[in-house]
Write a structure and sequence with these properties.
With about 250 residues, the chain is of the alpha/beta class. Helices cover about 30% and strands about 30% of the residues. The chain is built from six helices and 15 strands. The protein has a five-stranded parallel beta sheet with strand order 2-1-3-4-5, sandwiched between helices. The chain has a five-stranded antiparallel beta sheet with strand order 10-9-8-12-11. Strand 6 and strand 7 (about 145-150) form a beta hairpin. The chain starts with a strand and ends with a helix.
Amino acid sequence: MAIQAAYIGVEEKSYKQVNDLIKKQFREILLVAHMDNPDENLELIYHLNLDLVIMDIDLPKGEDRDIVHLIPEKYADKTIVISRDPLKAVACMHKGILDFIEKPITAEHFKQILMHYKHHLEHEHALNSIVHFDRIIVNRHDKAYLLELENILYFEADGPYTNIKITGDKKIGSSKPLGYYRDLLETKKNFVAVNRSTLINIQNIREIVKEEGEGTVILKDSSRLEVSRASKNRLMQVLYDLQDNSL
């Protein structure tokens, strides 16, 4: 299984070391992009379909700032961060980063991290295949929830994590970011983003309150969710398309 990866970082020495280790031990990982300007390039990777991002967050001397927050939410749980500052590992964990490597990079530690990632990716692929049967699995440290898509009311971002509201007035927390579920369900026309932090199941809409600019959707459980100005037209178009296809 080919793994599409990007490397981001300004230190050429770190890039060469990582590139050499990948070529020698992980030929299935393809570095399809090498970006040396995090400020300009992080926006670009959002539109790439990457499996892995390796990011060196150390900046040249004199630039004392934190760039962990620049990592797109879409790739947070697919990103391995490299730094000589172990204190930055805490910020990475809060962001939901996949893993952290402290410099100097050793071949053995790097191999352990990537082996862990490969097992994680294979596990995710196995779990994601379930969505084709109109179910998703939410895997947590204590248990795994198998959720029927029709019973999901909405997904709501909670920082780097996601809360999933299901019928029966129950919420299930997931360690995955909202972008993960948006990508996972993009082929399912029943799920539409109504604002930057909420993805709803339109089959469970009871009412739409049209207001100037923004709007509100009311779900079958009486939940009221804000619809942004940018998302309102998209939501209405999806609903009209479903109506036309059912006639």
